[in-house]
Amino acid sequence: MATAIDFLSNLFNNLNISEFLTGQKPAQEKKRAPMKMSKPPIRKAAVIGAGVMGAGIAAQLANAGIEVVLLDKFEGTGEKSIARMLKATPQTDPMNAGFMAPENSKLITTGTTDNDMDKIADADWIIEVVIENIDVKQSLFTEIEKHRKPGSIVSSNTSTIPLSTLTEKLSDKAREDYMITHFFNPVRFMPLVELVVSDQTRANAKTMIAETCDKFLGKNIINCNDTPGFIGNRVGAYMLKRALNEAIDRDMNIEDVDAVMGPPMGFPKMGIFALMDTVGLDIGRHVTESQRDALPKEDAFQKIAYDLPLLANLIDNGRTGKKSAAKEGFYRRTKEGKESIDLKTGEYRAFEKSTLKSPKAGRKGLRAVFETDDAGGALAWEVMRDTLVYTASLLPEISDNIMAVDEAMRYGYNWKRGPFEMIDAMGNDNETGVDWFIGKLEEENIEVPDILRMAAGRSFYAENGAKKQYLSLNFDEKVATYQNMPQSEGVLDLADVKRASKPLLQNSDVSLWDLGDGVVCAELHGMKQTLGPDTVSMLNDSMDLIAGSKGKYNSLVIYSDKAQFAVGANLGLAAMVMNMANYDKLDDIVYDGQKTLERLKYAPFPVVSAVGGMALGGGCEILLHSDAIQAHAEAYIGLVETGVGLLPAWGGCKEFLGRCFDNFEKNNGNLSPELRAFETLSSATVSSSGQDAKNKLFMRKSDGVTMNRSRLLADAKEKAQHLTHGYKPPTPYKFKLSGPGGKAIMDMGVDDMRALGIATWHDARVASVLATALTGNDTNPGRELSEEDILTLERKGFLRLASTAQTRKRIQTTVNTSRPLREKPLEVPQSGAELRDSVPDVAIKERASATPWSKETPSAAPAPSDGMPDTSKMKPMDAIIAVIKHDAGITDMRLPEDGDADALGPIFNEAAAQTQERTLDGLNKSKGMASLLPGKALKKRVMGDFEKRIEKGEMRLTDTTDPEAATKLMATIETMKHYKNLIQNLDM
Q1: Is 791:799 a contact under the CB 8 Å cutoff?
Q2: What are the strands, taking DSSP E only, across 211-284?
Q3: SS3 112
Q4: pLDDT of 899-919, one tens digit each?
Q5: Beta carbons of 657 and 18 less than 8 angstroms apart
């Protein structure tokens, strides 16, 4: 249904507010010679097989800017896969969220293998992603040979079939171009590609694909031997099958199994049963069967690869996990709540949270879990003992390098540690993990693999001064020696810097490191990657350090090698300050943050933020004040303060508003900069990728995106060095904003959203305070506002909201549960105290405006006075608000100090009736809107929109029993009607 906010948005845009109201002239970006950007050696690719995996590979190629042909046996499959991926987001459906930005889908052309094989003729790289059937694959390769150009590269995405088997029917010449590139699903997010080549594969073909996967697809390449399952699935399939068998044999609850076989082992949080639901039970069974068929009879996997009746029954009944129609597998959700499979009966039962001690023991390390005397500890030991022994026994068959095995499991299965790193983690100050593990195996009469004997008395990994080393294994002589870990060109690892040096300065939140070539790195490492006073203090110290270095240092890179860049301010500290009602202290924190980031923006040297993972709230504000951003492709950036009942106040409103004006000017935009900023910030919008962050204006078009996160810091350092040449700080923004007129439009739009149940009553209050900051409060379109003016409005708004009970409640809930709190959409405040702002004296020397609510409770809303307010000298939006308040009787409306929502019903019902019955003829006295309407053509267009939305019934009262919602919507509809009257009576 069309809503009032649709009209308001159109009106705001059609009136060209930026030109007629603001006259905004944005700060000019400094023009420098652009950094030279390399292009993928692969210009065009073809993917054959448009299922989940094939479509995911095609999407990632498109994300890298590579043109793709996506073919499938069945017509329409490619189109359906693209449509599915366009609907998915990393938050809602990560398994299908293939595109980093919707426009990337335009690089993909679809077709069928029957009709469109000619489209692969000019492809540089052809990837086969069809069913794991050797006859099907070999037949496809024969067809590919008929159409591909000489020198094109062909790879298979097989997960189990050796390359020698795949290519046995090809000519020797053709085999030079063939290899295996095994991606892991979801392709966009899993960084592993297992690369398998033969002795016949061209070296330059391997180099070209490895470079493309690394630099442009963001993948970590692991070179694997040509064996069934390679590394990832050979080890991972064993562990999963061994755990499933053991859980059934022990008749355990799957909740207990997932609790211990998750984070305590360094595995994904979901646990193994939830992981199998995500991957698909049928896919898991297929991998097991493929491994069983491909591996020799004496392989240890054969002992555990037997069929399970429970698994077969689930698959036969369509319960294959989250991808099934009913989303049923080992877990499911019903109206009654989450349910789990009983491994003994095969029937669903209510979910039971694990009460085992062993998962909690994981906080002390792996060894503590194994030594816990409960069912979880026993299962974990049995499963991991056998998995680690099996893995150790596979070297050198699958690889002669322990690093390759560990990296394959970290990058492909998302393990925190690889198998050999896990063995090291079992040690303590008195005994290495290798020796402890050998001792446990000997106690249980289990054969100790040669590799463990070779490593006895040592760890698999060690540090030698500034160098990290690994055990290099000589299997012929059965000896092992430490070798320095190799470093890829174009990769800068902060861990290496930290081993080789001491911090220049440090505190609990930030450490400063010398990256060489004059570049200082400010490493963010606050508690849970939050920001606080120590962050602000050290950022100031970093600027002092560089400024006082007499040219030794010339730029700053802000970075974190943790999973997240910064998730926002330390809400625990904020909650403590708010609960103590120490608003002077809170104001100091906000003020210091503002001034520090302003200093960062105007520093006499370039500042580059290198962001990976989430940069939310204050983290995003750091980015907005940087000269440039180098973001990992999977960067999730946003100003999310409204979610906890606040607004961005470290310059976030000011900087994002400036970005919106910049974008409007450069791209001749049709969405008012103020309204675009309001929509983004009020909805706590977060980007879904680095590329999307540019579309959402959190990043500039000139900012860089790094596909492979291991290259992020090096790319950021290079960008900082580039910016030092002829560096000058940016020009400050000067704002001309719409003031009360623009704010009224925003307020009415939010009221409409509130009436429709989309926004809560506190959302509306937060949005109103945000609107004040973005429109300049009581400014007028001719007045020029400085950055300092907007910062002051930010701080006032922040403190006003921080003093409200509901914001404090939201923040405390987030601190306690790590989950946001939102009121029910149509909830009415429970009391006058809950609705009113309890604003104390603060250092900013200004209270929020006095509330009109009093303690008295009338039996019904007071009737409006006979006289209409004089609107002739009012600004248009002030006139609209004044008349609505007068007509609905809300100017003097009173709320009870305490009481339930039912007590408010009569008040709102009476006000609603009055709103519908009375007219607002006085509004027509206002001529102030004439200057906003440039001509009769626009008047006609706006009137036509009114006719469609009001008179043709597109705007109507929603089905709601909530009295306040009804009142709000009625008032909004009446406002629309009298806008119509106003426009009709204007003298144009």
Answers
A1: no
A2: 220-223
A3: strand
A4: 333 333 343 333 333 333 332
A5: no
* Residue 730 preceded by cis peptide, ω within 30: no
Q: What is the mean pLDDT of residues 362-368?
A: 94
Q: At 920, give phi and psi (nearest 5°).
A: -120, 50
CA–CA distance, 412 with 398 (Å, rounded to integer): 15
Q: Residue 108, by phi and psi: left (phi above 0), alpha (psi -120 to 50) or beta?
A: beta
Measured between alpha carbons, how far is 307 from 509 in angstroms, rounded to an integer?
Answer: 52
Query: Left, alpha or beta for 745 (phi > 0: left; psi -120 to 50: alpha)?
Result: alpha
Identify the H or E element spanning 612. strand 607-616
pTM, two decimals, is 0.82
Distance from C-alpha of 661 to C-alpha of 25, rounded to nearest angstrom: 8
Of 168, 219, 174, 164, nearest to 193 (Cα)? 219
Q: Could you report the per-residue pLDDT of 229-265, keeping only the tens digit for each? A: 999 999 999 999 999 999 999 999 999 999 999 999 9
Q: Three-class SS of residue 473? A: strand
Residue 957 pairs in a beta bridge with none
Cβ atoms of 207 and 37 closer than 8 Å: no
Q: Is 68 helix (H, G, I), strand (E, B) or coil?
A: strand
Please report the pLDDT score of residue 930 as a whole number. Answer: 30
Rounded (10°) angle between helices 905-917 and 963-985? 20
Instruction: Report pLDDT for 968.
Output: 47
DSSP state of 149: P
Under DSSP, the state recorded for 25 is: B
Helix (H, G, I), strand (E, B) or coil at 442: helix
The answer to whether residue 88 scores a pLDDT higher than 80 is yes
- Residue 261: which residues within 8 A CB-CB, separation 6 or more? 243, 267, 271, 272, 379, 380, 383
Question: What mean pLDDT, rounded, does the chain reach?
Answer: 83
